[in-house]
TrEMBL record:
One Gene Ontology term of the molecular function aspect: metal ion binding
Domain annotation Peptidase M16 C-terminal: ranges: 69-118
A Pfam family of this chain: Peptidase_M16_C
InterPro entries, per the entry: Metalloenz_LuxS/M16, Peptidase_M16_C
Coiled coil, from the record: none
Descriptive protein name: Peptidase M16 C-terminal domain-containing protein
Length: 123
């Protein structure tokens, strides 16, 4: 697995041999994220740097000041309300059959059934 990008969505890039393991790691990061003060500060610094560099993924209304006003609890609340199966799309492309992709998706995400009313993230 090369990397998982989380500031603009998520994706993985992996060889055929490592894809199943990469998808398992990715699914755990989505379903059981580690949201603590250290990871929050590190991610916030990356986003602020991107905004200050004029990254096209962020609208002009997002500023360094608006980002610095966010708290870890804000992020957890957003995550719990929005990062749920009904708001999520999984796309698998590459040298894989539809049947194999479906099987791997079910294995990795099949038990994920949290709704927006459940508050799972507490780390």
């Amino acid at each position: 697995m090369n990397k998982i990008l989380t500031d603009k969505g998520g994706h993985i890039a992996a060889s055929n041999v490592g894809f199943a393991n990469a998808l398992t790691v990715f699914s755990k990061s989505v379903q059981e994220p580690v949201l603590n003060q250290a990871t929050f500060k590190k991610a916030l610094a990356k986003v602020i740097a991107s905004v200050n560099a004029g990254d096209r993924y962020y609208p002009e209304t997002i500023t360094e000041a608006s980002l610095k006003s966010l708290t870890l609890d804000d992020i957890k609340t957003f995550y719990n309300r929005n990062i749920i199966p009904s708001n999520t799309c999984l796309t698998i492309v590459g040298n894989i059959t539809a049947a194999d992709a479906r099987e791997l998706a079910k294995k990795s995400f099949g038990e994920w059934n949290r709704s927006a009313s459940e508050h799972q993230v507490s780390k």
